[in-house]
Amino acid sequence: MSARITPGARRDVGVATWAFAHVAGRVSGTEPPAVFLTLGRNRRLFRGWLHFAGRMMPGGRLPRRQTELVILRVAHLTGSEYEATQHRGLGRRAGLTDAELDRVADGPDAPGWAPRERLLLRVTDELHATDDLSDATWADLRAELDEPTCIEVLMLVGHYRMLATTLGVLRVQPDRPRR
């Protein structure tokens, strides 16, 4: 499928977004990320979104490894090829092994997860399935994390579900490796 809105050129997204996307591509070893060049077509919204998203990843309260597990689980549950591709690379950089990256698809009941990782995957699954958490899951989350971090986990799951929907509807294609 072809993109419904193609990634913008410098004149479409502005110099700052264009330069940011090119630097991000160099860092990730890909072409400039289509997520930035596509969403950047709405310049005002893009700047606000980038600030918001950056507060959770990479600037969140959770360790990056755990953040990437949540994002990868959302990508799996939503069928977001773009986010799965993008965050497999980021997950490796955060310390996830290839076996762990593959195991994300098996979910929280797969053997090998640390207790907090299993909990975060369970929270992600439950939020995806019901848009809520049972009292038992909430109690487990609160026993493990402080209030600000619990809020962040809920926002992280919701944000990446929203992003997966947007990227899917726009048919944004995964970024190719840099040549």
What's this, in brief?
The chain is 67% helix and 0% strand.
Descriptive keywords:
single chain; mainly alpha; AhpD-like; 179 residues; 0% strand
Q: Overall pLDDT, averaged?
A: 96
Return the string of H and E elements: HHHHHHHHHH
Largest sheet: none
Number of beta strands: 0
Low-confidence stretches: none
Protein name: Carboxymuconolactone decarboxylase family protein
GO molecular function: peroxiredoxin activity
Organism: Nocardioides marmotae
Domain Carboxymuconolactone decarboxylase-like: 45-126
How would you describe what is shown here?
The chain starts with 9 loop residues before the first helix and ends in a 9-residue tail after the last helix. The chain has ten helices and no strands. The chain folds into two domains: 10-54, no CATH class; 64-169, AhpD-like (Up-down Bundle), CATH 1.20.1290.10. The model has no long low-confidence stretch (mean pLDDT 96). With 179 residues, the protein is mostly helical. Helix 5 (64-78) packs antiparallel against helix 6, helix 8 runs antiparallel to helix 9 and helix 8 packs across helix 10. Pfam families: CMD (PF02627). InterPro entries: AhpD-like, CMD-like. Residues 45-126 form the Carboxymuconolactone decarboxylase-like domain.
